[in-house]
Amino acid sequence: MEPVKVNILAVGRHEEILETVLRIINKSENWTAHGALTDEKAIALFEEQKFDIVLLCGGIEEECEAVLRVTFTEKDPEIIIIQHYGGGSGLLSNEIIHALSKRNSLPNSIS
User: Fold this and answer.
1) Distance between first and last Cα of the chain
2) Domain ranges of the chain
3) Which of these CATH numbers, 1.10.10.10, 3.40.50.2300, 2.30.30.110, 3.10.20.740, describes 6-105?
4) Which contiguous run of DSSP H or E holds residue 66?
5) What is the rounded CA–CA span in Å between residue 99 and residue 111?
6) Is the CB of residue 73 less than 8 Å from the CB of residue 81?
7) Mean pLDDT taken over the chain
8) How many other C-beta atoms lie within 10 A of the C-beta of residue 84?
9) Which of 77, 84, 32 is nearest to 56 (CA)?
10) pLDDT in tens, 30-58
11) What is the pLDDT of residue 25?
């Protein structure tokens, strides 16, 4: 039986940066990532499948970020939302690992 992969939705405004983020995440055998350049695409993906983490990349306007956060948490109150500003693959991986470790330490979390 294959282990369940952590499913991550990355939302950003810069195509090249988003592609890099997706490539870094998808290198991990334990993670899988899908990306969206628009709010509409991000919301549609979120409604189509179950995500464990939403990664908000730089360039998202404050108002849009607020709407996304509300939309995602209304649909899934336990969703983990990470703000990612860049800084390389090591930082990105550590942000994801840290968020997952916090989730797994909660009394009602499921590993």
Assistant:
1) 16
2) 6-105
3) 3.40.50.2300
4) helix 62-75
5) 13
6) yes
7) 88
8) 18
9) 84
10) 999 999 999 999 999 999 999 999 999 98
11) 94
Q: Determine the distance from the C-alpha atom of residue 103 to the mean position of all C-alpha atoms in its chain, rounded to a whole number.
A: 14
Q: Which two tokens stand for residue 15?
A: 């195509």
Res 102 pLDDT > 50:
yes
Question: Cα separation of 38 and 99, whole Å?
Answer: 24
Tokens of 17: 């940066």
Q: How far apart are CA 98 and CA 104, in angstroms?
A: 10
Place of tokens 């549609």: 44
Distance CA 72, CA 9 (A): 11
Q: Is pLDDT above 80 for 104?
A: no
Length of the chain: 111
The number of angstroms, rounded, from the C-alpha of 111 to the middle of its chain's C-alpha atoms is 17
Rounded to 5°, angle at Cα 44 from 40 and 48: 170
Q: What percent of the chain has pLDDT over 70?
A: 87
